[in-house]
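Let's study my pick:
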Amino acid sequence: MSQIENESDSTLAEIAELEEINQQPLPQRASYYAKKSGPGWLQGAITLGGGSLAGALYLGVFMGYNMMWLQPLAMILGVIMLSAISYVTLSTGKRPFQAIKTHVSPVLAWAWIIATLMANVVWCMPQFALGTAAVQQNLMDGESSGTASTVLICVCLLIVGLVINYFYESGSKGIKVFEIVLKIMVGIVVLSFFGVAVALATSGSLDYKAIFAGFIPNPSMLGAPAPTFSEAIAATGGFADFWNKEITSSQRDVMMTAFGTAVGINMTFLLPYSMLKKRWGKSHRSLAIFDLSIGLIVPFVLATACVVIAAASQFHSQFGDVLNEDGTVNEAMAGAFADQANKRVAFEVGEDFATMSNEEKAAARDALPQADRELAAMLAKRDNMNLAQSLEPLTGPRIAQDIFGIGVLGMAVSTIIILMLINGFTLCEMFNRPGNKTLHLIGTLIAGLGGFLGPLYFWVDKSSKAALAIPTSVIGGAMIPIAYFTFLLLMNSKSLLGHARPQGHQKLRWNILMTIATVIATSGSIWVLLGKGTPGKIGIAILAVLFILGLVGFLSKSSKEDRNEA
């Protein structure tokens, strides 16, 4: 019997088994579902990447415990949309790109797939940078951090990504190996950051009341600096308005990073294709939702919450790790401090800042009033080595750096693997050649090589590799409304879903939940883009045009179908 026939028999047997299991109570179903999970863990592997680390790290630095609710909320909204995507895909068995072109709008279909391709390449860059930083800063303790070391590490990351993706393309056994590797990596990431939280808890340095209060949504925190900065801002006197705007602007990008990396636009592309690759169908719909809940929500919320707690307890409104007691700058944080202090200098001197030499800028930073220097130090971008220091009371300095470095490296590697995988799917779809191994390999290489060039050419000598994920995540997060709006329309397509289209109360629930998720994601994107000047306004205009064209196309197709039925 051929391999294809074996896989077909296995799929039929699994479907029959699922139909029986789906009738049983949740505890019995959960045990079976846990063994069959897979696509949800792929989602978990990509979401626990450099963007999530940066979002959680700087959310803690800027907002303390006040925004503990943001990332869980973003993940819940994302899982609502991913559950809807899985429902549509498993009900129809159709590839989403083709379904969107036929039943909604070719414009939205191409916008979705092009945005996914861009996000894969853009997001791959900080993953390579973060992986390089984890090896050089944490595991090698800053040693051998030259160009040769960077090239070698990037080559290794690229090879690992290609090899693991080869397993995925090799068939059902390869997919199982692929998923096991990713589950292990996700487990390592969660355990590493959980260790940070344990270390802080045992040291007695956590404010549990503030932590639990931080899980209660407080939208008023979105447009103003955290209250703990008030005294420090007031101390700067005439420059208080500058610091208010600077902190608010930086917080906005950090919040978008934290929100946008919970579920990115490329995750909306990965999920349906990974399910179809496993030959899942209608009987797998309940399993798919369980899979997303366990493989995505649980590890993401645990890992990011631990990072926010660690960053907030160690760095929020603190400057002692940046400024020494004599007022000089800690050498290890000189670059991060300069990045923040230069903004204050530039605001005061105006256009002359561009013509100042490095020595003149250094002198101007040294001449800043102490209040401004302390505030610049509070906002300095911390990196992997800084956050790893929170483990030292539990493990000692060397083990702390190793444990944290392994966790960060696991984040970077798992995300690189998945981004390359998605790009392979994307390229195959763009050429309408699903399953073409050559195109898939080329797609993985495009993302991998794009990421490879990041730390070598685009982000050389930057003070914080973790901070590099913020601008890329802002770009990626701004694209997510395209996917949310597209699948909201797709869920209501009678021509696509037919009798499987939700009806009555089920339809009302889906539409309410999906509309809430779409409105919040779109509002967040507009909020961030408004702060980006002309490019941001262009981005908003593009989103508006896509929404209008998509809605017109959907209504036109629905009207045509109604006329045909009449």
About this structure: The chain has 25 helices and no strands. The radius of gyration is 24 Å. Confidence is low (pLDDT under 50) at residues 1-7, 460-466. The first helix runs from residue 3 to 21.
